[in-house]
Specification:
The chain has about 280 residues and is α+β, with helices and mostly antiparallel strands. It has eight helices and 13 strands. The chain has a seven-stranded antiparallel β-sheet with strand order 1-11-6-13-4-3-2. A four-stranded antiparallel β-sheet has the order 5-12-7-10. A two-stranded antiparallel sheet has the order 8-9. Strand 2 and strand 3 form a beta hairpin.
Length: about 280
């Protein structure tokens, strides 16, 4: 099923801001009813529950995550295929895209883990993507702020290109700390504080991190990642290679209601996180 372009087309000013800063916040991209459906699906879908992993940080904490590589007919698959999301990704990346990966990040109250400074392309380069023609769209399912571990960016750091990553923990790689310090001395750190339904889109070379959630409020987010079609992976070691993406109308989410993944893992949930082999931090 194909759909007409979303009426929520990005403006030239928004596209220019993304190219300059490396990120763009779209307020209220999903309405409360849609957020409720997505939140409940993340809480109740057996496929999500059965594939939940814990990603350890370097501070003794961990974030619960679930990852899947296809956008199917579940309510969250339809969100990834919705015209508003696909059109935004194509406008920002400058060409047709396909679904690369989706992920639930569940930072629970009272200690949900930190994510160290990293670039997504620091991982995805090793998946066989030649160019950094990818981006991530993080949809807030809960209020996300400094107290419960919101995303932090170094503004404009995507212009630095892919930088060396080192092993921070068994399950996380991070940017060489000397590079982070040099970038922070020259560029501004910003915090992506979001209300439920807000979405932050960021470039795959953006330096980003998040603190542990030490508040009494959870911080759950749904992240959808897109790759430009002409940047299809040169390897087939996993299933993030090009599969045509069928865009659906923006109202498909509400029309589907609380629809879970179909039996048989058609969304291609993964059983282990992907952590490339790199040198250890000194």
């Amino acid at each position: 099923m194909s759909s007409a372009p979303s009426p929520r087309a990005l403006t030239p000013e928004q596209i220019a801001a993304f190219e300059r800063d490396g990120y763009l916040i779209l307020r209220g991209l999903f309405d409360p009813e849609e957020v409720g459906l997505l939140r409940t699906a993340m809480e109740q879908d057996p496929s999500v529950r059965d594939h939940m992993l814990v990603r350890a940080d370097g501070e003794g904490g961990g974030t619960r995550i679930a990852l899947w590589n296809r956008a199917g007919d579940s309510v969250y698959g339809l969100a990834a295929r919705s015209a508003r999301m696909v059109d935004a990704a194509e406008a920002l990346l400058g060409g047709p895209v396909y679904h690369f990966q989706s992920k639930l990040t569940a930072k629970d109250a009272g200690g949900g883990g930190a994510w160290e400074w990293h670039q997504d392309y620091g991982y995805w380069y090793h998946n066989g993507c030649l160019w950094p023609r990818l981006l991530s769209c993080m949809i807030a399912l809960d209020r996300t702020d400094r107290e419960n571990g919101c995303l932090q960016f170094i503004m404009g750091s995507h212009h630095l290109g892919r930088v060396e990553h080192v092993q921070i923990s068994k399950e996380q790689n991070g940017i060489d700390p000397a590079r982070v310090a040099a970038a922070e001395a020259r560029l501004e750190r910003v915090y992506a504080e979001l209300d439920p339904g807000d979405t932050v889109i960021f470039h795959c070379n953006m330096f980003h991190r998040s603190d542990q959630n030490r508040s009494d409020r959870r911080r759950w987010t749904l992240i959808v990642c897109y790759n430009r079609v002409d940047n299809d992976t040169i390897t087939r070691d996993d299933d993030r290679y090009y599969v045509p993406l069928e865009r659906v109308p923006d109202d498909a989410i509400r029309a589907a209601g609380l629809k879970f993944a179909a039996p048989g893992n058609d969304e291609h949930f993964t059983s282990t996180p992907y952590v490339p082999q790199v040198g250890a931090a000194e």
